[in-house]
Q: What sequence folds into this?
């Protein structure tokens, strides 16, 4: 009876790497009998499963918000034993292109205790910047960049 779990590790990207656009996540997996599949996890959510070596997943980072993310692989052998990789931390950094990145900005309305923090990945098109400024100023709202 096979009771030994497979061993898996992420070989790319490296821990601490910055990724953008399309990024290939590569992994290795070995087992004393046979590896049945390798799963690729992003921020604790299953993204892809690969049944054959070399194990990889093509990650479109443009659908992930800019900032820190975690990657992990889970390998399963034919007996159902599971082994997990060390978690790899990476940072997504996709350019905002022709827009203004207002991620983490704070909006504060004058004469009020109302404050709004904009979420990471908030980008407005360049053509909307002047309109936004007019709307905010006429509404008595001050904008400050996060420091």
A:
């Amino acid at each position: 009876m096979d009771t030994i779990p497979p061993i898996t590790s992420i070989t790319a990207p490296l821990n601490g790497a910055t990724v953008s656009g399309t990024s290939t996540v590569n992994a290795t997996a070995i087992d004393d009998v046979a590896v049945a599949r390798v799963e690729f996890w992003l921020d604790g959510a299953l993204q892809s499963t690969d049944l054959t070596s070399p194990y990889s997943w093509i990650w479109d980072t443009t659908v992930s918000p800019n900032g820190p993310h975690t990657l992990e692989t889970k390998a399963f052998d034919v007996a159902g034993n599971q082994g997990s990789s060390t978690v790899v931390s990476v940072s997504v950094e996709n350019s905002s292109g022709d827009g203004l990145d207002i991620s983490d900005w704070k909006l504060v309305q004058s004469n009020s205790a109302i404050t709004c923090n904009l979420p990471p990945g908030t980008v407005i098109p360049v053509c909307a910047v002047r309109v936004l400024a007019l709307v905010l100023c006429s509404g008595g709202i001050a904008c400050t960049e996060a420091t």
